[in-house]
Design a protein that fits this description.
The protein is about 65% helix and about 10% strand. The strands form 2 sheets. The protein has a 4-stranded antiparallel beta sheet, with helices on both faces. Strands 5-6 form a two-stranded antiparallel sheet.
Length: about 375
């Protein structure tokens, strides 16, 4: 507990300091005040007033991000729909709007480490004719519009606290524009700018992008991978394992083998993916490791499963079990085979059966329940 408190205090101190520095940059850039004059004014201000200003700046930045993230996702939504895509889901923080049976509904749904996501399904066109540019650029465009609308406020005399809030809003907007617009990889995953270039230059990236969106839409509606078009799951030979869009293709194919209960085939594909673990993004690597634990157990490689199932992977499984039914499937097999606790394994299955409607991807739930039934002999 003490360690957590110290971390929070340290983070707040950094936030306040950054708030002062950013405020100084904006004052110098957009007023006639020099940085020296700003420091003098700051030194002449009482400690309580300075502390208040720093906290206001920090809170304003956080509030601005809470506004600009939904704006960013709305940009993907609007530009995607205008490009011919169809609505699948729109998530902001812990809430998601999805289409079920032709109707929109709101559900609680949180994914750790993410603020939002807009998922659409591409138009029914040949791969080469499917547009991808505006869908990916939409979020950046809407953030640019938001910042542009706020810029004139810098030249209006307002209360100092309001001025700080405007400065922080613009800063947050510029930050999001740069982080999403400058082509780069963050934790190994390409941002919007990177994906725009990859989708334009690499047909295989575009195939992975389009097939993943289409599969996601069908799974949300309740379809299982084994019932989807087989051409979506053909694995090419020239996969770039540093590109998450291309890696999604063999991952989808391996997952389909799991759904078909062809465990040896699935194990071979996931083992092949794992040999490229030094090139695959961390999130995908965690998913691959989870499936390998499951497959090694059902295929009799107990020691191999133990080797992968470290504390970090156990934490990952526990973190995502409430939003991904596949994690309950994995925990069920761990209980049955590794822990030799059949009653616990059956309890995990029964709990998933009771909570099945809480999950977003209903096709995945159907698959995992069928697999668990088969393994448990129910």
């Amino acid at each position: 507990m003490l360690k957590s408190i110290i971390k929070i205090i340290f983070a707040l101190a950094i936030g306040v300091t950054v708030g002062f520095l950013v405020a100084g940059v904006f004052v110098v850039c957009f007023t006639d005040t020099t940085f020296y004059e700003f420091i003098n004014d700051l030194m002449s201000t009482s400690f309580s007033e300075s502390l208040l200003a720093g906290f206001v700046g920090l809170l304003a930045f956080v509030a601005s991000m809470a506004i600009l993230v939904p704006v960013h996702e709305a940009g993907h939504l609007v530009c995607g729909l205008l490009s011919g895509y169809k609505f699948v889901s729109f998530r902001i923080f812990n809430w998601i709007i999805i289409k079920l049976d032709g109707k929109l509904c709101v559900k609680g749904f949180a994914v750790a480490g993410t603020g939002g996501q807009c998922l659409l399904t591409p138009p029914d066109l040949p791969l080469g004719r499917i547009p991808t540019g505006w869908y990916n650029f939409g979020g950046i465009l809407f953030n640019i519009i938001a910042v542009s609308l706020a810029l004139p406020l810098l030249f209006i005399k307002m209360h100092p606290i309001v001025e700080v809030c405007v400065h922080m809003f613009i800063l947050a907007g510029v930050f999001l524009i740069l982080m999403n617009g400058i082509p780069m990889k963050i934790s190994g995953a390409g941002n919007d700018g990177y994906n725009m270039i990859a989708l334009n230059k690499a047909p295989l990236s575009k195939r992975g992008f389009v097939d993943a969106l289409r599969a996601n839409a069908l799974i949300q509606e309740g379809a299982r991978p084994k019932d989807m078009p087989s051409e979506w799951f053909i694995i090419p030979d020239n996969i770039d394992y540093t590109n998450q869009l291309e890696v999604s293709i063999p991952m989808m194919a391996a997952s389909r083998f799991v759904d078909e209960m062809k465990y040896q085939d699935a194990l071979a594909e996931f083992e092949k993916l794992y040999t490229h673990r030094d090139r695959i993004i961390p999130l995908f690597l965690k998913e691959i490791a989870c499936e390998l634990v499951f497959l090694r157990l059902v295929c009799g490689d107990i020691e191999g499963a133990k080797e992968l199932l470290d504390k970090d992977l156990k934490t990952y499984v526990e973190t995502f079990r409430k939003v991904m039914s596949s994690k309950e499937r994995i925990l069920c097999v761990i209980a049955l085979i590794l822990e030799e606790n059949r009653s616990r394994a059956v309890s995990i299955y029964e709990n998933l059966l009771k909570r099945k409607d809480e999950y977003l991807l209903q096709g995945e739930v159907k698959s995992d329940l069928a697999i668990m039934q088969n393994i448990l002999g129910l």
